[in-house]
Amino acid sequence: MSTIKNHVQLIGNVGQEPTITNLESGKKVARFSIATNEYYKDSKGEKQTDTNWHTVVAWGKTAEIVEKYVEKGKEVGITGKLKTRTYTTDDGNQRYVTEVVADEILLLGSKNDK
């Protein structure tokens, strides 16, 4: 059971081209966002869409896969965990960021998708 305490699974579309950073250690890190959609009917019976955006971070071999195959608009499946970090802005305000640290990325859609 300990493996499902902090476990995230998402399927969504990539919002922008991934940013790849090569660290001094030789390791790669990829950052990108994905949009997930939920559909429901409102009180009038009209179909509505609720879109949520998630920031995804991938390291090492997973980042290399992102670099080669993931592009804006591509549908992907992500498994990983949530990670929250804090930082201080230039004007002294503390900010909190929650990201999905990807363990595995599945490329979805057809092979002909751009």
Provide a concise account of the structure shown.
The chain has 114 residues and is mainly beta. It has one helix spanning 60-69; strands at residues 8-14, 19-22, 28-41, 47-59, 75-88, 94-107. It has a five-stranded mixed beta barrel.
Question: Which keywords apply here?
Answer:
114 residues; 1 helix; ssDNA-bd; NA-bd_OB-fold; globular; single-stranded DNA binding; Single-stranded DNA-binding protein; five-stranded mixed β-barrel; mainly beta; 9% helix; DNA-binding
Commentary on this structure:
This is Single-stranded DNA-binding protein. InterPro entries: NA-bd_OB-fold, Primosome_PriB/ssb, ssDNA-bd. The protein has 1 helix and 6 strands, in the order E-E-E-E-H-E-E. With 114 residues, the protein is mainly β. The chain has a 5-stranded mixed β-barrel with strand order 1-3-4-6-5. It is globular, with a radius of gyration of 16 Å.
Helix content: under 10%
Structural class: mainly beta
- Major pleated sheet: 5 strands, mixed, barrel
Count of individual helical segments: 1
Radius of gyration: 16 Å
Reconstruct the topology from this structure.
Elements: E1 8-14, E2 19-22, E3 28-41, E4 47-59, H1 60-69, E5 75-88, E6 94-107
Parallel strand pairs: 4-6
Antiparallel strand pairs: 1-3, 1-5, 2-3, 3-4, 5-6
Subunit structure: Homotetramer.
GO molecular function, one term: single-stranded DNA binding
Protein name: Single-stranded DNA-binding protein
